[in-house]
Task: structure prediction
Amino acid sequence: MKKACAVLACCFVLTAVCKSTFAQTATPPVDEKAAPAKSKSDPDVKAAQWAASLNLNDAAKEARVAAVITAHLTAVRDWHNSHDYTLVPEGMNPITGKVFNKLERQVIINSTIPKSVHESLMAGLRKDLTEAQVELVLDKYTIGKVAFTMNGYKSIVPNMTKEDEAFILTNLKLAREQAIDYKNVDQISTIFKIYKTKIEAYFTDSGRNWHAMYKAYADAQKAKKGAAPADQ
Result:
């Protein structure tokens, strides 16, 4: 009887030990909730796509370019998100005499981003890319606004000279490089507007009234569509 009891006691002990060991070594249940897919607007997603579009045929170089772009896009996004437009007091624009709107105030505060953010991007791109490739990246940032706006001017300005075209292109490229440090399309367009104003003043100052040329273009476009003239 004593032997039987001893055997049963040993069985209970072994069972308890096995359960304890299994509990410690068993694989925890897998969380079936998959990580949410990244948005196309995420900095690393954009950067990877832009770097891949260059067709560098060099994985290490492509990775470096993507990393530089990711760092810049992230810095611009974080600066925008942490600097609300309300940090700029609502006041008068001394050029127009109108009160600054929300977009203008946001552009003003975003313009305070450290210059090193821009400089690091450009230096990083130029380390691995040609100037032509750098321009392709800048076009990605600004959704091709240089070519689009240039084509618009060519349609509006009759008899455009090579000098005119060079002046326009120089200013549009300046706009493009400045605009990459802003968060969204509206802010980018605001930066381009600064340089478009300079371009339009250039034509007026050279004896070609910009507003008259634009009106003639708009009237011609409406006439093609069978619409009424711009002015009655």
Q: What stands out?
A: The mean pLDDT is 87. The CA atoms of residues 17 and 141 lie 63 Å apart.
